[in-house]
Amino acid sequence: MNPRRSCTQSCTQTRAKRESEEMMAKLTELAVRNARIPIGSTKTEMLLSDGDGLNLLIRNPNTRKTWLFRYTRLGGAHKLHIGAYPSVSLAVAREAANDLRRLLRQGLDPIDEREREAKALREATAAREAKITVSDLFNPETR
User: Angle at CA 53, nearest 5°, toward 43 and 117?
Assistant: First the structure.
């Protein structure tokens, strides 16, 4: 096998893949709103890509649509739920996906970061509730 030819084929395939991804149309709000699993289809789920990891998961019945961010890290595929459509619009989902990509560029795992934020929120809430409870014990009006 000629090493030069192998590189040329590999480079051509990589370039073709990149060009096809660039040509893939971004989703529009109208397309998201009207997206449905075709009638008579045996599929129970359908995934529409907006590119760069942002996907819309449509589940049967066709009324349930969820935004997902899919990415690979440390050799494994991961997905993170962003929110349900229409509560989370296309624009908001794109912003969230940009934030998640920023975390990945910084070398952070978005799932770990989300869990860390949730833990901090739980701890802050528990501390606030504990403070209120102790304060209430010594307040003559609440006895």
Answer: 110
* Cβ-contact 69, 80 below 8 angstroms: yes
Tokens of 127: 């501390």
| pLDDT by position in tens, the chain (length 143) | 454 445 555 555 555 555 555 556 799 999 999 999 888 888 889 999 999 999 999 997 767 899 999 999 888 899 999 999 999 999 999 999 999 999 999 999 999 999 999 999 999 888 877 776 666 677 777 65
Do 70 and 128 share a structural domain? no
Residue 65: CB atoms within 10 Å: 20
Distance CA 36, CA 65 (A): 9
Give me the CATH number covering residue 39.
3.30.160.390
Task: Report residue 62: phi and psi, to 5°.
Answer: -65, 0
How far apart are alpha carbons 91 and 82 in whole angstroms? 12
Amino acid in position 64: R
Number of domains in the chain: 2
- 85 phi and psi, to 5 degrees? -85, 135
